[in-house]
Amino acid sequence: MSRYGASWRDIAAVHRLDLSVAILAICYGWRGACYAVTEPTQLVSAAALLAAIANVLLFLGGGLALNTAADVNTDAQHAGKATLVGAAERTHVSHWSATEIVVGVAAAIAVTALTGHALPAIAGTVTALSYAAYNLDMLGRLKHKGFVGALVYGAATGGLPFLVSAGAVVSRLPGWAWWLAIGLTTISAGRTAWWSVPDLLGDRKAGAYTPSVRHGAYRTTAVACLFMAVGLAAAAAGLWRFGPIQTTLAMAAHLVVFAIAANPLLRRGAKFPSWRTITMRILPLITLGEVLVLAVPLVTLLGVPRI
């Protein structure tokens, strides 16, 4: 228990930390380097590890803790988020968030200083600004601007950390890697918009103009599925160089998530998922999908043939 009455369990709660989120953080942190390296030893170079640390801190501080701090009043309208609100009230979550974001950006800049590659510092700074713009009223609170906010958050969790990590290894990315980064961004943007659907009633009550409040559950889900479909196609285009079988395996879990999201659009009477369903059942599937995407270049490095 800290001097402010917050336990480490509270600190984990405001960062949404569980096994799935911890694995996601590692995937987001290290993924770009996995696709950029030509030798396994490059993955544990000082620059690659520092880039991974930068990405993890930016994700935990900006993507999760800052979101918790910004959403306390809104989350108070959701009965299922009472534990999160209580943890936020006992924890100086904004202090944690600010520290993690500053250290994350500093780490990304340090990667540029180590390697001479501009990409990590630029992408790391843009990641921090994206999270701030998504969450903070003074920067427009893009979370309440409909699908624009979803795209910004998608970039901060998808393509931008990929660029930070890959930039620790190479100064320029090949064309296929840009397709993959765009795909990861768009898939994440679709999920972000879709995840606003379970919160529709509470967000509307709190006056939060998320995509589902602005456009309704059906239209939001339809646009989210369009984003995911485009993202899956772009990511598959980037992954194709590893072989059709590897590409299919890498995309398999994300395709299942897409099918679950699209189900209420295709079947009359099918229900939109609850927040509990998303966190307990769908988040593990998403985590599996990110692990499979991460595994593709790793198994290639180990000499598995492309098929």
Describe this entry's structure for a reader:
The protein is an all-alpha fold and 307 residues long. It is built from 14 helices and no strands. The radius of gyration is 19 Å and the shape is globular. The model has no long low-confidence stretch (mean pLDDT 89).
Q: What topology emerges from the helices and strands here?
A:
Layout: H1 8-14, H2 19-36, H3 46-70, H4 72-75, H5 82-90, H6 93-115, H7 119-135, H8 147-157, H9 159-167, H10 175-194, H11 200-206, H12 211-239, H13 244-266, H14 275-301
Looking at the structure, what is the overall shape?
globular
Mean pLDDT, all residues: 89
How many H/I helical runs?
14
**Structural class based on helices, strands and sheet pairing:** mainly alpha
Portion in strands: under 5%
Rg over CA atoms: 19 Å
What's the total count of β strands? 0
Helical fraction equals: over 70%
Order of helices and strands: HHHHHHHHHHHHHH
* Low-pLDDT windows of residues: none
Largest sheet, strands/sense/barrel = none
Q: Could you tell me how far the N terminus lies from the C terminus, measured between alpha carbons in angstroms?
A: 53 Å
List keywords for this structure.
mainly alpha; globular; 307 residues
In brief:
By secondary structure, the protein is mainly alpha-helical. 75% of the residues lie in helices and 0% in strands.
